[in-house]
Amino acid sequence: MLRMPEADQSVLARRGEIAAALRQIVPAASVIDSAIQMRPYESDGLTAYKQMPMLVVLPETTAQVSAILKYAHANNIKLVPRGAGTSLSGGALPLEDGILLGMAKFSKVLDIDFTNRCCVVQPGVTNLAITKAVEHEGFYYAPDPSSQIACTIGGNVAENSGGVHCLKYGLTTNNIMGLEMVLITGEVIRLGGKFTEQAGYDLLGVMIGSEGLLGVVTEVTVRIITKPETARAALIGFPSSVSAGQCVADIISAGIIPGGMEMMDKPAIHAAEAFVKAGYPLDVEALLIVELDGPQVEVDDLLARVEKIALANKSKTLRISNSETERNLFWAGRKAAFPAVGRISPDYMCMDGTIPRKKLPEVLAGMAKLSKKHGLAVANVFHAGDGNLHPLILFDANKEGELASAEAFGADILRLCVKVGGVLTGEHGVGVEKRDLMDTMFNPTEMDQQLRIKCAFDPKNLLNPGKVYPTLHACAEQGRMIVRGGALPHPDLPRF
Amino acid sequence: MKPRDDKDLAEAVRAAKTPFEVLGLETKRSLGRPIEAEKLSLAAFNGIIAYEPEELILECGAASKLSDVEKMLAQKNQMLAFEPPNFSNLLGSKHAGSIGGALACNLAGPRRLKAGAARDHILGLNAVNGQGEIIRAGARVVKNVTGYDVPRLMAGSFGTMMVFTSVIFKVLPKPETEQTCVLRDEGPAKAVAQMAELLATGAEISSAAYVPKQGTYLRIEGIAASVKARVAMVQAAAQVQEVLKVAHSRNLWRELRDVMPFAAEGNKQIWRIVLPPSEAPAFLSALPDGAEYFLDWAGSLIWLAADAKFNPRAQLPNGVATLFRASAESRATAEVFHPLSPELAALSSRVKAAFDPKGLFNPGKMYKGI
Fold first, then answer.
1. Do B200 and A226 touch (CB under 8 A)?
2. How far is the CA of A303 from the CAs of A231, A233, A258, A288, in angstroms?
3. At residue A66, does pLDDT exceed 70?
4. Statement: residue A482 has pLDDT above 50
5. Nearest-CA distance from A452 to chain B in Å?
6. Backbone phi, then psi, for B217, in 5-degree steps?
7. Element (H or E) spanning B136, and its range?
8. B341 touches chain A (CB under 8 A)
9. B262-267, long-range: CB within 8 Å, 24+ apart, which pairs?
């Protein structure tokens, strides 16, 4: 069972007083304190965990956010920021004694600036809405997490979200130019702007992907780029994951960086095909979708090269899209892979490790063994270009013990990823889901170094505590704490 | 002090009572404010640790020479896509310096428009913090969001937070060829407007610069057939005076990358100014007599040579100005890096202390007290 920091009873006892104080800052209706109205906030995309917050507050201006944080800081009240609540790692899981800070009212596109190729938006704007706001001029916002219709840009900043196109176009962190953010003290700072440089340290770099632990983002400047002239995809079936993996390596070695390069294993192919009838071959062990985008002549030329490489790697089937309809059909199966698996299993759990690509056969073989050990099936979809693996563990939460088995299986998969030189999470974030596995990747000294960054931003540990790191950290004033002798600092601090 | 390995380095830092001037290959030592402190040379940390072209991964010692690294990558038709400049002529040093230095200074060349800076390609590093602890951050994979992004925070930290011993970078395929379209000089306002217009086409321009009296340059890279088609796109959209073929084009962008127009010794100070491209013309309209400049990054980067009296920050509402080349005396007294708001300065100082609580590494290099 997941342990969270112990609730502060003295804070809970002051719940009414805190709600009243928040109503001095925002309109009364923007403070939610009834159980029935708080229910939608009790979990995020990681629905296995639920917790009602103490209160929900929905600010709509930077000044309100600043006042709320200042108040929380002065009164030692924890805060959990939330965008659309699509996190797959429990990043927005509420705390019993914490204020849930919903940013949904920050939903305005503030400035569309085609001349400087950027867009200034409030953090509650959805990822896809940015593209919708600029596509009439042929522009788009590149990072495209699969939740893009619902997830907010503020959440993308918190999680450093990826998507199928990030090998070529980068993660969120490569596409954000500036932020306005509020520190826990209520101080408002600006990082970057409509230009790609910051004064002083790269604090943008550390803010993006910090999972709501360092500050609350109130404005985002994103880079927009021109839409490629065309895109075509190849659908390639292989007799083994080894030959599919080698094909990916050969494509990249040939100097080709596809716009998207996705792999599915046999269980995932079958589930997807049964669901969307995309015409996937069912007699192959691995399926690759390779999408090239850019000027027509380049796409055609590179697709011909990809075809040659695929044949040299003994591909069994190969189709190249000849229309947008066909291209979208190739993708339909992959994009529906999660619900497709949801159709064949009462529940599934989506994992998110990254591995060095060449280790794929070893990891798939290891996963097959683990599948037997835990008695649960697994289907794999894989951002093949960048080594980001999404094993989907199939289970039935209504069966006694299966959730625990699925969690144990997932943890074993992530340990395997780390063991072969990979990492716990490629794009979903650590949140609460992988928090207790952090010590498989970082030793106590390294973990402590990261916790001292937290101290520099939030020494009282009030912003999203209990997420990402398995221990809290006692911060000295000004973050000037010196640890000597290699001893683990604060052995008395509870692990939760 | 010249430690041989990371244990040696960690021990030296733990034993230190006084600060260090952190040095790699000493080619960019004149960037930032001068420091009077014991030298800490990282020259021993060189050599390739792992290069896996099919994984797009390079790990090497922080003091590995950029020129050696780039030569090795080129053999596999790969590159550091952020195109680290070689400031040796500008700064009077011997060569382009080290790969760790490229990260510490967050270098970026003309391809920044498309490919970003060192910060956009760093994946991991090994370092020693100011408490003499060995810290590993990031990993040898291209996609990773596990924990705070410590490697990216190190970009542009000028050796003030941790001392890097090795770095892991994402590498990318080299474009097969390139050409450059040249547009007639019609002044900076017209140039910036034209660059913005052409960047909005499907021509996928990877670099765009304006040099007064020469004109506007637009670089197009990729496979030959694609380059040809995209050059035609530019020709259809603008009056192209000349198209530079591959050798000429590469040479041009190398010269602009390395700030060769201002390489000659002179009394003028050299500023590197980054601002919203659309605000460049207004900034340039108020330059003092004798000031010289050229634009890169479609107008977002201004390289400026001006008299010591001139302070560009007075006319820069949005942007970041760095005093890039000036005498040691000037750098000791001037604000070399762009001033921070009080809140940001306080936060930066706390972040520095999180890594280097005793202030051992390059104290004052960027800002007084940081």
1. yes
2. 10, 8, 10, 13
3. yes
4. no
5. 5
6. -115, 135
7. strand B134-138
8. yes
9. B262/B90, B262/B292, B262/B303, B262/B305, B262/B325, B263/B89, B263/B90, B265/B92, B266/B305, B267/B307, B267/B308
Q: What residues form DSSP beta bridges with A286?
A: A238, A265
The Cβ of residue A231 has, within 10 Å, a number of other Cβ atoms equal to 18
Q: How far is CA A223 from CA A14, A122, A274, B83, B344, in A?
A: 44, 14, 39, 20, 23
pLDDT of A489 above 50: no
Tokens of A409: 């299986």
Identify which of B38, B32, B330 has the alpha carbon closest to the alpha carbon of residue B156.
Answer: B32
Q: What is the pTM of this model?
A: 0.96
User: Who's near B285: CB < 8 A, 6+ residues apart?
Assistant: none
**pLDDT score of A475:** 83
Tally of CB atoms within 10 A around A218? 24
Q: Do B337 and A453 touch (CB under 8 A)?
A: no
A425:B150 CB<8 A: no
CA separation for the pair B146, B138 (Å, rounded): 8
Instruction: Judge whether A222 and A118 are in contact, CB under 8 Å.
Output: yes
Distance between CA atoms of residues A159 and A156, nearest Å: 5
Asked if B185 and B216 touch (Cβ cutoff 8 Å), the reply is yes
By residue count, chain A amounts to 496
d(CA A9, CA A51): 16
B213: closest CA of chain A, how far (Å)? 24
Map tokens 């788009």 to a residue.
Answer: A140
Of A86, A80, A83, the C-alpha closest to A100 is A80
Average pLDDT over residues A32-47: 96
Task: Show Cβ contacts of residue A384 under 8 Å, excluding neighbours closer than 6 positions.
Answer: A244, A245, A248, A261, A262, A263, A288, A357
Which residues in chain B (86-145) have CB-CB distances under 8 A to chain A?
106, 108, 112, 116-117, 119-120, 129, 131, 133-137, 139-145
Q: Are strands B207-211 and B57-61 parallel, antiparallel or unpaired?
A: unpaired
What per-residue string of b and e applies to B351-366 under the rule 16 or more CB within 10 Å gives b? bbbbbbbbbbbbbbbb
In chain B, residues 300-339 whose CB comes closer than 8 Å to chain A = 300, 318-320, 337-339
Interface touch A189/B343, C-beta < 8 Å: yes
Residue B189 has pLDDT above 50, yes or no: yes
Counted across chains A and B, CB pairs separated by less than 8 A come out at 282
Residue A465 vs residues A91, A125, A172, A432, A481: alpha-carbon distances, Å? 10, 25, 23, 10, 20
Compare CB distances from B153 to A202, A423, A426 and report the shortest one's residue.
Answer: A202
Q: Quick check: B30 and B325 in contact, CB under 8 A? A: yes
The backbone torsions φ and ψ at residue A89, rounded to the nearest 5 degrees and listed phi first, read -120, 5
CB contact under 8 A, A450 and B147: yes
Closest residue in A to B341 (Cα) is A189
Query: ipTM of this model?
Result: 0.97
Q: Strand A55-57 and strand A98-102: pairing?
A: parallel
Cα–Cα distance for residue pair B236/A193, rounded to 1 Å: 33
Helix (H, G, I), strand (E, B) or coil at A325: helix
CA of A434: how far to CAs of A92, A440, A450, B276, in Å? 14, 10, 16, 40
